[in-house]
Amino acid sequence: MSAAQRDTLTAGSFPRISGLSAAMLASERIINEPHKVNIYLDNEGEQVPEGQAYFRRIEVSFRDSVSGSVRIYYHSGKLYSNTLYAHIRSGLRHGVETLWSESGKMIGRTEFVGGIAQEVFYY
């Protein structure tokens, strides 16, 4: 897949944090207070150190040691998705997940309860 094709990924094909979170967050120590972790990915989806060129940025905001939200940004810096999690490290979504196109238009919204999609809307 070329970089141009990756730039035009649809909501259903964009990589999710749930499959990546355990490996990417494994080195993060557990902190029982609100904090943020930034993860940078190259165009192959591999994690790169902060300060190096990156293709996507993932911002993980913990409310406590397990729950919080995950924001994924396009290479341009614009927000792609915001997802609420009951347990980030295990990928248990609980709350609303919203997806946007790179132009800023909302393209999808899903309500999750205990990791199960309850309502799905595509715009």
In short:
The protein has helices spanning 3-7, 21-25; strands spanning 35-41, 47-48, 56-62, 68-73, 79-87, 92-100, 106-113, 116-122.
Blueprint of the fold:
Layout lengths: L2 H5 L13 H5 L9 E7 L5 E2 L7 E7 L5 E6 L5 E9 L4 E9 L5 E8 L2 E7 L1
Antiparallel strand pairs: 1-2, 1-3, 3-4, 4-5, 5-6, 6-7, 7-8
Could you describe the 3D structure shown?
- With 123 residues, the chain is mainly β.
- The chain is 8% helix and 45% strand.
- The protein has helices spanning 3-7, 21-25; strands at 35-41, 47-48, 56-62, 68-73, 79-87, 92-100, 106-113, 116-122.
- The protein has an eight-stranded antiparallel β-sheet with strand order 2-1-3-4-5-6-7-8, with no helix packed on it.
- The two termini are 26 Å apart.
- Mean pLDDT is 79; it is low at 1-22.
Low-confidence stretches: 1-22
What is the number of strand segments?
A: 8
Round the mean pLDDT to the nearest integer and report it. 79
Oligomeric assembly? single chain
Give the end-to-end Cα distance, rounded to a whole number of Å: 26 Å
How many helical stretches?
A: 2
List keywords for this structure.
eight-stranded antiparallel β-sheet; 2 helices; disordered N terminus; mainly beta; 123 residues; single chain
